[in-house]
UniProtKB/TrEMBL annotation, chain A:
Disordered, as annotated region: 1-23
Lineage: Bacteria, Bacillati, Actinomycetota, Actinomycetes, Kitasatosporales
Protein name: DUF742 domain-containing protein
Bias type Basic residues, positions: 1-10
Organism (species): Streptomyces humidus
A Pfam family it matches: DUF742
Xref: InterPro entries: DUF742
Amino acid sequence: MTPRGRRRAGMVRPYTPTGGRAAPTRRTLDLATLLIADPDKPLHGLDAHSRRLMQHCLPGVLSLAEVSADLQLPAAVTKVLVSSLVDSSHLVSRDPVPAAQQHDRQLLERIRDALINL
Amino acid sequence: MRSSTSEGNYLAPGVSHSVKIVVLGPFAVGKTTFVGAVSEIRPTSTEERMTKAGEIVDTLRGLSDKNTTTVALDFGRLTLTDDIVLYMFGGPGQPRFDYMIDELMQGALGGVVLVDTARITESWDAMGRMEEADLPYVVAVNTFAASPRYSESELRKALDLHPSTPLVECDVREKSSAKSPLIALVSHLLSRPSLEPAS
Ligand SMILES: Nc1nc2c(ncn2[C@@H]2O[C@H](COP(=O)(O)OP(=O)(O)OP(=O)(O)O)[C@@H](O)[C@H]2O)c(=O)[nH]1
Ligand SMILES: [Mg+2]
């Protein structure tokens, strides 16, 4: 178990409560979420930002962070655009491997071996 | 401002899973250098607009700029296997960005806390953040030539490091060296007692 709120050499680390703050972003969209565009979905009817985002995603898979950086859109804005494109099935999103699956030994071993062989 | 924004550095076909590692540490400890050394793409940054209170705001909904500040979040990418890609995010150290770091740590595989031995205590905050988020992490000492050298036990004591938390040294400018905290982190995850064999 990870120790919480440990004191370091007698000093107390200042603690900032985070509860109660508004969180406008969807928890399901992460900066490391992979975005896959559906090439069969028509782009007409989309606003200019959403169309540009789709055009950027159509050639291949990118993370939300990369799309945000490539299009020079703030991450929060990118998340709003992406979530509505996911709702309309223009995009499929794949969240980073959730904590539960990270307990999968085989996956971790593959990651470790790939890093070692880098 | 970059001009070539239409160039996408697309992932190889078949990459279907991402994992995320968060790199924290005090000002100028080498977070951006670390991410850049390991990344297969030129390290980039994504921008978050935040209120003075530290909330990420949705700029599509309109707001007055004087109450907001912009912060860049560095990231890099490393394709590990035919199907797995690793994203590394280097977060700003200042406490006013706590909210953003909390969000960044959610869904992460683990964390790397960078330390400069000339100012060890400045990394306490980052270590505390990882512990509060219950995110497994490793501590990586970035070996600046001008900074003092200590033994592992001296460092562990000065950092008040939990005995099970790995401590590694690296030169964040070199890929071969900078990957060692990542290997230590994944080995650490594999060694945790909570990790049961799949049934
Ligand atoms: N000599 C030496 N210089 C380093 C090393 N690592 C980083 N630097 C330099 O230290 C400076 C800060 O490194 P960054 O990677 O920008 O640090 P950072 O943590 O991202 O800094 P902020 O984002 O501003 O907090 C840069 O000029 C780097 O070139 C190192 O291992 N040795
Ligand atoms: Mg930096």
